[in-house]
Amino acid sequence: MGRSRSRSSSRSKHSKSSKHSKKRSRSRSRDKERAKKRSKSREAKRNRRRESRSRSRSATASTRRERERAVTPPERIDIFGRTLSKRSALDEKQRKEEEEKKAEMERQRKIRQVEIEEKLIEEETARRVEELVAKRVEEELEKRRDEIEREVLRRVEEAKRIMERQLLEELERQRQTELQAQKAREAEEQLRIVEEQRKIHEERMKLDQDRQRQQKEEQKMILGKGKSRPKLSFSLKATE
After folding, report:
1. How far is it, in rounded angstroms, from Cα 9 to Cα 21?
2. 172-177-182 Cα angle (round to 5)
3. How far is CA 13 from the centre of its chain?
4. Per residue in 77-132, pLDDT tens?
5. Which of 22, 76, 177, 179 could covalently link to 84 via disulfide, CB atoms 3.0 to 4.6 Å apart?
6. Across the strands, what pairs with 77?
7. Integer CA distances (angstroms), 34 to 24, 41, 66, 115, 218, in order
8. Which residue ranges make up each domain of the chain?
9. Is 83 within 8 Å of 77 (Cβ atoms)?
10. Distance CA 94, CA 151 (A)
11. Within a 13 Å sphere around the CA of 164, how many CA atoms are in the beta-carbon half?
12. Could you give the CA distance from residue 37 to residue 221 in angstroms, rounded to a whole number?
């Protein structure tokens, strides 16, 4: 009995759940159908609005054309056989071309004017910048004048010392050169004196030799002559 009750209760639960699921599926399908119908109705309304707008536009265009036809007078011809409408169109074209030329000329004039103004602005800016730079340089120089003067004096003194040292070195080199030249001259003079003394000594020796030879020759001559003469005796008296 317990099993039969449980089976019956499970069947009833299953049947209830299946009924609920069927109801949910039906409601979903109905919602989908309603959404489709609403979208179709909206699309139809949009189409009707488009058609009505197009009809109104076409009607407006037709009425405008009719009004233009009613207002436009019949074509007239000038003395040259041209229709006045064509002539007015040519005149209008020429007028437009002239206006376009004038507009182009005005545009070119404005461009040139802008270029001239830009050039003037650039030149004026460069001039002002140059003046400003010169002014700043002058101010900076004025601020640093004392420092610059001190630096200039320091460099002048340093250059002066360098020049004095160079002059002293040059004078010392000249003095050494003169001393060397003087020594060379003295050495040459000493050599010359020695050479002259040597020559004098040699000349004296030669003279002495010549004198001695001459004396010997004279003695020989005297001796040679004495052989033929009597011998003379020389005696020295003793002095008291």
Report:
1. 18
2. 125
3. 95
4. 655 555 556 567 777 888 889 999 999 999 999 999 999 999 999 999 999 999 99
5. 76
6. 83
7. 15, 10, 47, 71, 189
8. 15-72
9. yes
10. 80
11. 6
12. 191
DSSP readout, 109-134?
A: HHHHHHHHHHHHHHHHHHHHHHHHHH
> How crowded is the C-beta side of 191, counted as CA atoms within 13 Å?
6
Question: Could you tell me which of 36, 54, 34 has the C-alpha nearest to residue 44?
Answer: 36
Residue 128: the pLDDT is 92
- Show Cβ contacts of residue 87 under 8 Å, excluding neighbours closer than 6 positions: 78
* Alpha-carbon Rg for the chain in angstroms: 75
Structure tokens at 21: 């699921």
Query: Do you know the residue count of the chain?
Result: 240
pTM of the model: 0.27
Task: Determine the Cα–Cα distance for residues 43 and 46; give it in Å rounded to an integer.
Answer: 5
Instruction: Give backbone dihedrals phi and psi of 229, rounded to 5 degrees, phi first.
Output: -105, 160
Q: Looking up tokens 């004078």, which residue turns up?
A: 171
| pLDDT average, residue stretch 225-237 | 52
